[in-house]
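Quick one, T. Sequence first:
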Amino acid sequence: DNIRSHVVKMTQPDLFIGETLVKLEEDMDGLTAETLAKGTMEALKEAQKDSNTTTNMKDNDVETTKALLSKALTPITTPPLTQTRLRSKTYQEHNKSIREAAIAHVSKIKAASNALISYMALDAKGKLEVKSCLKSSHDVAVE
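Structure tokens:
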């Protein structure tokens, strides 16, 4: 197991991180989850004071976390570049489809990072309701 872990870490770092996140989520006990939630909320409050921005984070909001994760996992259907060129009537339409796809990918990454922050702020019970959030968010970022 140690040899496999070392080889995967060196040759496929994204796979290694994904597997580590799954293990971390499985091994997290109630006290660890509560400590993480408390630390996350304190850090968010401190960041809000420093940046003069408002966040819509609510304590222990499982539904928000699920909604963000769902948004992050929504597939983006973009035709291959050659098909886009063939179907585009103009160069501007082609550029518009590329721009829309890029914006959709950025939105997915933003939703995944917000889902992670929301997950970290959940209490132990909430974290149990949103299993695999860490791995799913990581998969979106790798995609």
